[in-house]
Structure formats: structure tokens, C-alpha cells
Amino acid sequence: MTRNLPTSGSLRNHLVLTLIGGAAILALLLFFAIRNYATQVAQQGQDNILGASVTSILDAASIRDGTIEVDIPYASFSMLSTQSDDRIFYAIYQDETFLSGYPKLSLATVSGQESIFQSVKHRGKTVRLVTASRTLIGIEKRTQIRVALAQTQDALSGTLAQISRNAALFGTGFFALAALLSIWASSTTVGQLKRLTNSVTRRGPQDLSPFEKPVPSEMLPLVTSLNSLMQRLDHSLGQSEDFIAEAAHRVRTPLATVRSYAEATLQRVDKEENRQALRSMVRAIDESSRAAGQLLDHAMITFRADHLEHQNLDLVALVNELVVRLMPIAEMKDLELRFHSDAQITYSGDPVLIQNAVRNLIDNALKYSPSEGTVNILVTAAPNVHVRVCDSGNGFPSEELNTLATRFKRGKNAEGTIGSGLGLTIAMDVARAHGGNLQLSNGTEGGACALLSL
Ligand SMILES: Nc1ncnc2c1ncn2[C@@H]1O[C@H](COP(=O)(O)OP(=O)(O)O)[C@@H](O)[C@H]1O
Ligand SMILES: [Mg+2]
Fold it and tell me: What are the backbone dihedrals phi and psi of residue 437, each rounded to the nearest 5 degrees, phi first?
């Protein structure tokens, strides 16, 4: 069962959002920088022409016979002409006296040579205004001529709007390109992580070998700790398996010794009372050695099921050998073991586990069916490889059919028989480890049937 861990958001989304956010800010900055610069350049252009024009007007001013004459040259207005037919206003003052032009044009006070440029409102429109002055020296007087020249900014605004449009287009293009690049960059970065995840997921549960494929240096610590974790896991799994084998041996051997002593003593004791006690003792030893054995078998199978030792074997011979071995026990109970099979079935699996599973099924048949019955054991590869053990007893308790194969579960009919409730669990685990299953059913004419498919 895998539990859904909480996530702290997506790395990919985080990367994409950060990069796209950065690109958006850059695109905006770029847009404003271009527009600002273009405005400055365009304004500078208009100012230059206005400056030249006002100078040419001032140059045309002269004193003749004591009166001021300003003969405005045609060129000084024609050089200001624009595509948008921007309007031009001018005003000429001698000292503080208005001479000609538009009297409402507000002049700046100028001193000296420099021209003053301003953006002002005139007749409800923004105009660029330049004011310049020149001192004329006549025979008996010196006088100051001041000229103001203003021009509307329609052409300039048009140009600026166009530049803004282009800058916006350029910014959008830049942003789109940057966004695509961010998505691509995030995908390749996260792709590396995905590849590692895939190679971890694709491994079987028993594959504890280290990762050796090259990974980006940032991921190296993760892979290194994963490798060391797997190494430790492999080591401790190996240790546990050795421990189980050792424990099985250490438990079974002394019990077998005690049992043989008890049996030998039984031969020598005459008093019925004592013989009864010794028989109970042998039975108790059998019970505990069987229980201990099954517990360890179960533990062993849980381990081996994770890393099965596949071996090519003849399933018919394997089961037959077991049946022959169990024959004496069956005879003691007046039960007949019948073996039916195909001629030969080559199968790749773990022989120790398979024998263990089938032995548990036959054990059950011997335990739970009354004497003078028959136990049919069938090994066949048609339609799929399976071993079927059917007896002529009372069958499985039908209301418990679905739960009998769970750990330590014993049926209602098990009272008085030795057992630990692990036999069917072991058979089921072995079948599943080999890609099969265990099915329990009751025959129409009574009797329990266990089908171990492999
Ligand atoms: N051949 C059988 N006939 C009737 N009942 C059976 C048979 N095999 C198993 N059972 C029932 O299934 C239960 C579980 O079997 P198992 O796991 O082998 O445990 P155990 O044999 O130790 O009781 C048994 O306790 C018994 O109730
Ligand atoms: Mg059993």
C-alpha cells in the first residue's frame, strides 16, 4: 500500500512561474526604456529645428533708421513643416513691447544667448515653446529683441505612438520567446529528476543493486544516499534470512532429540499411567515442533518470495516425491493417496517453496478428513500449471471459505487437531510469489479442494 505523501507544490511549476515572471518584468522594463529613449530623441529633434528656426528669425532682425525691422525669412517656418501639419505660433517683442505674432503666447524671460525650451499649453493644446533673445545695438540705442516660437506636437505624438507600438510588439515577442525557453528549460531540468524516478519505479522490489547511470551533480547526494540505503537494506535482509535458517535448525534439532528420548523411554516403560504421560509428551513435542516449523517456514517464504530462486524443475517429479514421503502417514490413518499427473511438466520456480506449499495442502487433507477416505492429488499443465488436492472429508467450513487463508486463521472444524493456522497462508504466498493463486472450494459431493495455480 502506498500512502499519498503531501507535496510542497510542483518544482516544475515553481521554475516556470519564476522564469516567466522574470521575463515579464524584463519585457516591461525593456518597453519603458525604449519608449523613454525614443521620446527623448524625438523631443531633441524637434527642439533642434525650433532652435534653428528661432535663430534665423532673430538673425533677420535689424535696426534701420532707429526702427526695428524683422523680416521673417520663409525658410524659418518651412523647416518646421511636418507630415501632420503641426501648427506654428510666434510672437516678437521689443523689450516689453509686443511687435507681431500671437500676443497670447507666453514668453519665458531670457537673458544672454541661450534659448529656453518649454512644453506649455496654448489654445488647449500642448506645444513646444522656444524663447530666445538678441540685443540689437543702433546708433543711439541698444534694444532687446525677444522671439518665441511654438509648435504643436501632433507629428511627434504620432511618431511616439508608433514607436510605442513597435516597442510593445518587440516586448511581447521577447516575452513569448523567454516563456517558451523557460518551459523548455524547466522541462529538461525536471526531466532529469523524472528519469531517476522512472528508473527507481521500474525496478522490481528485489532489485537492491546501486544506481550507476550518470546523474546531474546536484542529484548526486540523493542518489548516493539512496544507494547506501539500499546497500544497508540488502545487508540486513541477508542477515535476517540467515537468522531464520539458523533459528529453524536450532529449534528443530533439540526438539527432535527430546522426541527420540521420549519414544525410547516409552519402549522401556510398562506402567500404563506413565506410558500415557509419555505419549502426551511426544504429541506435545510434535505439536510445538510443527508450530515452530511453520512459523519459520512462513517467515522464510515471506523473505524468499521477494527474491525467488528460479530453477528449472519437473513439477510432476517434485510433487510425486512428496506424495511418496507422506504415504506412511496416510497409511497410519487408513487414507489412500492417489496421484494423477501429466507425464512431465517443466516449470521454473523455487522447489523448496513449492514443496512446502503442496505439503501443507496434503497435510490438511490428511488432518481434516476421516479415515478410510481418499485424497486425490492432481498435477497438470492444462489449461495452466496447477496442483489440486481434493479429499473426501466434510469440506471447508463454507462460511469461512474466504478467510481461511489469512494468517493464524483456523476454522471451526479445527478444534482438537494440531495446527497453527499458517498452512493455507504459506500455500497462498508461494502461489502468489510464482504469479499464481490459491483457490479453496468444496466438491459437490463433499470434500475440500485446494487448487494451487502457479
Ligand atoms: N482439507 C480440509 N478440510 C477441511 N478444512 C480444512 C482443510 N484444510 C484446511 N481446512 C480449514 O482451514 C483452516 C486453515 O488451515 P491451515 O491454514 O492449514 O491451518 P491449520 O491446518 O494449522 O489449522 C483449518 O484450521 C481448517 O479449519
Ligand atoms: Mg494446515
Answer: -160, 170
